[in-house]
Task: structure prediction
Amino acid sequence: MPARPCAFCSIARGETPAHVVLDEPEAIAFLDHRPLFPGHCLLIPRVHHEVLTDLPSELVGPLFATAQRLARAVESACSADGFFVAINNRVSQSVPHLHVHVVPRRQKDGLKGFFWPRHKYAGEHEMVALRDAIVTTLASG
Result:
């Protein structure tokens, strides 16, 4: 457990509301509230680990298998051309809890290198609709 309260641990425990798209015993995924593009999800292990190198080796495979399933669902639910998966470790890591970014991509979407402008959701209705689409896609296969 971290020395200071962790925002992502609070989400994992159900204490802080989030638009959860995947809820499993070892991991949880939810919409990023400051997405690069709508549908941008964060996948976290339920147990607090600050960076990838802190994650026990036996959990690496299961976490990335979950990331693979989530990426497939995000791409499909968002009708995206593709996706990218990224992890920041300390540098540019806004919350010190390991999290995998799964971001839908489109041709000519303006994302270049590591310059990642954030895009706001149109409102709660858009977040709920995307959350529901990703949940449905995950459930179907």
About this structure: The chain has three helices and five strands. The beta strands are 20-23, 27-31, 41-45, 82-86, 100-105. The radius of gyration is 14 Å. The longest helix spans residues 57-77.
